[in-house]
Amino acid sequence: MKIRRIIVALLTCTLMVVGITGCGSTNSSNQSQENTPTQEKTDSSTSSEKNSTKNNDTASEGKVLVVYYSASGRTKAVANTIVQTAGADVFEIVPTEVYSDADLDWTDDNSRVSKEHDDKSLRDVELTSTTVKNWDSYDTVFIGYPIWWGIAAWPTDTFVKANDFKGKTVIPFCTAASSGIGESGTLLAEEAGTGDWQDGMRFSSDVESSEVAEWVKGLEKEI
Ligand SMILES: Cc1cc2nc3c(=O)[nH]c(=O)nc-3n(C[C@H](O)[C@H](O)[C@H](O)COP(=O)(O)O)c2cc1C
Question: Which domain holds residue 3?
Answer without folding.
Answer: 1-51
